[in-house]
Amino acid sequence: MVKYFLGQSVLRSSWDQVFAAFWQRYPNPYGKHVLTEDIVHREVIPDQKLLSRRLQTKTNRMPRWAERLFPPAIVAHSVYILEDSIVDPQNQTMATFTWNINHARLMVVEERCVYCVNSDNSGWTEIHREAWVSSSLFGVSRAVQEFGLAGFKSNVTKTMKGFEYILAKLQAKEAKEKEKETALAATEKAKDLANKAATKKQQQQFV
């Protein structure tokens, strides 16, 4: 039997902003369970879609009863996650699929997300999320799945908070850069006006 999760979230940022933030999500205060993140493959296919594969290392908190029942190799405190993604910039969609490549004897968590423009507000982005939690351990599979599903839901909350944190940082940086550009443009315009005034004054002196 498999535990299934279905959910939808909305980020009040444009798809382009969310796409940029997606690649810069870590580190953030809500993602301390993510230890490392590495791109292992990336390519642009002929239809101009971007394919990527990333390897993540995360902490793996297991219930105490599992630590007592199973050997350390099975309940090691780090889990390796593969994340495949495909980005379609023309249609503004991004689909991701993640799964753990160790601890599979204990539990497998698979997640599929689709990021697209919100149907009610084109300046927002919605995330459609599905997850499957399974375990093949005889006698305790249900308890393991319940634990895995609870942990997954908790991580979804952290993920969304982390996303919002990174988006806020990027937007603040963008606003600061625009402010600098505006100030620079104002300074250049002031210099230009001053030069024109000086030139006009010189011309009047020769008349």
Automatic annotation (TrEMBL):
This is PRELI domain-containing protein 1, mitochondrial-like isoform X2. PANTHER family: MSF1/PX19 RELATED. Pfam families: PRELI (PF04707). Residues 2-175 form the PRELI/MSF1 domain. GO terms for cellular component: mitochondrial intermembrane space. Signal peptide: none annotated. It comes from the Eukaryota.
